[in-house]
Amino acid sequence: MAVPVHVPWHRRLFRRGPPERYQAGQRPRSMAERGRPRRSIVGILVPLAVVVAIVAAVTSYVAVPDIQRQVNDTVAGLKRQFLPQLADVTPTAGASAVDAIDGNLLTWWEGGGDQPGLTLRFNPAVDLGALGITAGANGDDFPTFRRPTQIRLVPEDGDPVTLDLADTRDFQSFRIDLRDVARLRVQVLESRGPGGAPVAIRELQFQEVR
After folding, report:
1. CATH class of 86-209
2. 3-state secondary structure the chain
3. What is the pLDDT of residues 2-34, one digit of tens each?
């Protein structure tokens, strides 16, 4: 339905012809222009500032070695934490501890005393991300030896990690985060089993973060 257009009084004095009409829903050009939003200076400067900041960050990363190294270290740390890529790594040990890392579950390491331990070496140094352990002796000998229920991993440089174990002959695995490990002491803090018997560990399996 067409409606008459409102015309100011001074234009009506000199108007010629019939009054102008618009269809329903149609607006005069002046009203359309008044309803159109205008871009503010803030709306222009904010995206520009974001672009400048991105360009400056990329330029600094490429041109400044210290910034590049810090960014790479941060990304590597986040990757180790959230997307670790683990690979088996085998340490070396003295003759008294070799049965704990030989990959043979029919043999085991024995340690006497209240808190026995063994020392392992990694060459080159590694970032350790996981430990698997099979505690106790094999087969019928399992109940005749003590089994570790708490162990401590003590790197030569860095903070130690304490792990609580279940008293089971089954394989157990743990996530750990030990960086740049060349020498590692594995010490039994608590054990369960017949008093005076040696502590037995069938196998220790390590994985490094790559």
Report:
1. mainly beta
2. CCEECCCCHHHHHCCCCCCCEECCCCCCHHHHHHHCCCCCHHHHHHHHHHHHHHHHHHHHHHHCHHHHHHHHHHHHHHHHHHCCCEEEECCEECCCCHHHCCCCCCCCEEECCCCCEEEEEEEEEEEEEEEEEEECCCHHHHHHCEEEEEEEEEECCCCCEEEECCCCCCEEEEEEEEEEEEEEEEEEEEEECCCCCCEEEEEEEEEEEC
3. 555 555 655 555 555 555 555 555 555 555 455
